[in-house]
């Protein structure tokens, strides 16, 4: 019994000694660690955890946060939005500088009167395609430089014409007919494809090339899509304009082609325009008639109700009633009526006349010089009494003016080259600038370039604003011509208001015109001080060529009516001029690189039809993504720049996606002066301009 007790005692004693030893060991370890901590010298990263959204790193012994994906450094923290970068130079006037010679564009043979902008290799830099609009093949041995394609290598344009593959015939030879080109991602692979358009009427060789679709091979080159054909029932295809849209919001791009005369000047030799429905296979199917867009062969009865074929000159697509579906606006030559088709219940309805889009209300033709010639030969008619003597030399009776035809409303419209859609009055909906070519001898009845303000369309018709009230004025003297054949509408100085630049044509005395918005769709002609005045400017495009956060402008120059006696002297060719914006980069803006998902029943990859609303300090700034517009399919830089005045951030940005549900992406408290990469159903990404440029 005693032996057992001693044995147990020894065991307990040993355990107690072990516990005491363990306690002292732990105390000594803790003290040692504390001493070690006291001995370790603190670094700049000590006690910095970067808001638990990154890690502290040292650069030149200076603490810096290396933030996790989706977070941005702001001092020694990582936030889900980057730090504010406020530009404080304030509102500045529109000023540009011609840098054509600086970039050596003449020597590079950048020549043309049609300009299209795209980013064909998705490197964030805008590439440029230019053409002269000809319907002849390119002869490399005796080049007329009728087209060229230039890659933008970080602000330096490099000729990529033949490497692009865009100008190959169906037989694989270089030099196909290319009147102009528009771009759109028809197969939703993330790279814009190209529609190479051959304008073919009775004055051209129709047995060579036709309009063809070219597929973009991941930014390397283009290949003809042989399965697609756009040959109409007739042998002619006078496609004066074309654009991409997604009219039914199925996620596939569709195509609209507007046709002019098959035989120039003859209203009875015209075609209906065409709508092609896109598909996941890339094949485009003609659905013109089933969608309610087919017009009839020209008769006076059909023309009276704006249902006759017209010599279409341009086409635009924009949503006028904010239902998420674009209306189709067809601009018409020959002083015939324009056409407006409203999307309603899965079809298009002709609203041309009741919308007030067909023509203006000035129908007094008594100062039309050809009418006065008619009356000179019919002076006994009551219609012709007490009129002025014509100021032109009259030809034989009845040749150029006919009673019962030329006095009808459908012959008292305009020569409309473009219908520019934008929210000119900043009320949240699309308005229209109708761009018109007009001549002194036609008189008051010929429509002039004019704003059409949208006040709750279609409940109210579009309101035409005269020149005096809009400020879109010019000086007209003598035998004047309004040579307006194109235009752009964007905020050029990033002051939050949309400005206008109108390109011209080849008529003597014409030039580009620049209008800076004062406020609420009131403009001031600043052509002379803007640095953008170009004599006989023909062809225009918007692009941020140097990716500094403002829109620069390219313009061509037409030489057709330029004589040896004109001043300045006639250039040796139709060289493209690049005008650099010298003020817009200094003001606050929201910059957006936007993409649809490209998947079934989502938005098309180009996000064509998307509506962007930026709200800042109680104001709204609205943009829509378009797939081309106007004569020869003008396309701007896909990079979106929205000036927001002196605001350093947007309180809210809403993107309405062009899909069947019109889903939304909503962002709040968005700092200005960063590039927002917005992709449908994906996380937002912020980039500095330097990062976006790849620096």
Low-confidence stretches: 1-10, 34-38
**Count of DSSP-assigned helices:** 6
The largest β sheet comes out as: 5 strands, antiparallel
Broad structural category: mainly beta
**What is the residue-mean pLDDT, rounded to a whole number?**
92
Q: Which percent bin holds the helix content?
A: under 10%
Instruction: Characterize the overall form.
Output: globular
Distance between the termini: 89 Å
Strand content: 25-35%
**Number of DSSP strand runs:** 41
Task: Report the radius of gyration as a whole number of Å.
Answer: 32 Å
Describe the structure.
This protein is mostly beta strands and 695 residues long. It is 9% helix and 31% strand. The chain has 6 helices and 41 strands. The strands form 11 sheets. Strands 22, 23, 24, 25 and 26 form a 5-stranded antiparallel β-sheet that branches. Strands 5-33-32-31 form a 4-stranded antiparallel β-sheet, with no helix packed on it. The longest helix is centred in the N-terminal third of the chain and has 38 residues. The protein is globular, with a radius of gyration of 32 Å.
């Amino acid at each position: 019994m005693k032996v057992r007790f001693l044995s147990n005692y020894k065991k307990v004693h040993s355990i107690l000694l072990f516990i005491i030893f363990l306690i002292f060991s732990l105390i000594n370890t803790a003290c040692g660690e504390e001493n070690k901590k006291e001995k370790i010298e603190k670094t700049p990263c000590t006690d910095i955890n970067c808001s638990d959204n990154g890690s502290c790193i040292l650069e030149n012994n200076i603490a810096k946060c290396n933030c996790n994906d989706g977070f941005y450094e702001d001092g020694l923290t990582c936030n889900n939005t980057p730090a504010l970068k406020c530009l404080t130079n304030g509102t500045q006037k529109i000023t540009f500088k011609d840098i054509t010679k600086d970039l050596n564009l003449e020597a590079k043979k950048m020549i043309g009167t049609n300009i299209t902008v795209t980013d064909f290799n998705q490197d964030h830099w805008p590439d440029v395609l230019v053409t002269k609009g000809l319907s002849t093949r390119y002869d490399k041995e005796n080049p007329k430089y009728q087209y060229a394609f230039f890659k933008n290598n970080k602000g330096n344009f490099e000729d990529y014409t033949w490497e692009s593959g865009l100008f190959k015939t169906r037989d694989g030879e270089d030099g196909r007919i290319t009147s102009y080109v528009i771009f759109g991602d028809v197969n939703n692979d993330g790279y814009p494809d190209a529609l190479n358009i051959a304008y073919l009427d009775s004055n051209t060789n129709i047995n060579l090339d036709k309009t063809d679709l070219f597929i973009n091979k991941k930014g390397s080159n283009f290949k003809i899509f042989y399965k697609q054909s756009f040959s109409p029932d007739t042998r002619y295809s006078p496609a004066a304009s074309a654009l991409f849209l997604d009219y039914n919001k199925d996620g596939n791009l569709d195509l609209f082609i507007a046709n002019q005369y098959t035989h120039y000047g003859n209203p009875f030799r015209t075609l209906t325009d065409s709508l092609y429905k896109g598909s996941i296979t890339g094949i485009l199917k003609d659905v013109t008639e089933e969608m309610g867009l087919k017009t009839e062969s020209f008769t006076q009865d059909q023309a009276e109700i704006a249902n006759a074929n017209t010599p279409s000159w341009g086409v635009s697509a924009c949503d006028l009633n904010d239902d998420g579906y674009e209306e189709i606006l067809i601009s018409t030559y020959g002083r015939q009526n324009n056409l407006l088709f409203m999307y309603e219940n899965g079809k298009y309805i002709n609203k041309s006349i009741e919308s007030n889009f067909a023509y203006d209300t000035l129908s007094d033709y008594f100062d039309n010089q050809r009418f006065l010639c008619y009356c000179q030969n019919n002076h006994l008619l009551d219609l012709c009494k007490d009129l002025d003597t014509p100021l032109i030399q009259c030809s034989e009776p009845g040749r150029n003016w006919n009673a019962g035809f030329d006095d009808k409303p459908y012959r008292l419209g305009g020569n409309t080259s473009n219908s520019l859609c934008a929210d000119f009055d900043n009320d949240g909906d699309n308005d229209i600038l109708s761009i018109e070519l007009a001549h002194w001898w036609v008189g008051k009845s010929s429509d002039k370039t004019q704003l059409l303000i949208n006040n709750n369309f279609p409940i109210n018709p579009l309101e035409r604003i005269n020149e005096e009230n809009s400020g879109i004025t010019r000086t007209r003297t003598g035998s004047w011509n309004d040579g307006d054949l194109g235009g752009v509408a964007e905020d050029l100085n990033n002051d939050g208001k949309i400005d206008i630049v109108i390109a011209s044509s080849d008529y003597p005395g014409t030039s580009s015109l620049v209008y800076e918005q004062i406020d609420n769709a009131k403009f001031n002609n600043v052509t002379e001080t803007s640095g953008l005045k170009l004599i006989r400017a023909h062809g225009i495009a918007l692009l941020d060529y140097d990716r500094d956060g403002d829109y620069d402008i390219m313009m061509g120059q037409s030489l057709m009516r330029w004589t040896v006696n004109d001043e300045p002297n006639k250039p040796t060719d139709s060289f493209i001029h690049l005008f650099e914006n010298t003020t817009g980069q200094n003001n606050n803006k929201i910059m957006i690189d936007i993409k649809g998902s490209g998947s079934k029943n989502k938005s098309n990859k180009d996000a064509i039809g998307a509506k962007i609303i930026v709200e800042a300090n109680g104001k709204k700034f609205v943009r829509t993504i378009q797939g081309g517009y106007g004569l020869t399919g003008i396309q701007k830089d896909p990079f979106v720049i929205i000036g927001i005045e002196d605001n350093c951030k947007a309180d809210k940005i809403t993107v309405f996606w062009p899909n069947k549900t019109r889903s939304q992406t909503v962002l709040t408290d968005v700092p200005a002066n960063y590039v927002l990469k917005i992709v449908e159903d994906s996380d937002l990404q912020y980039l500095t301009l330097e990062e976006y440029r790849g620096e």
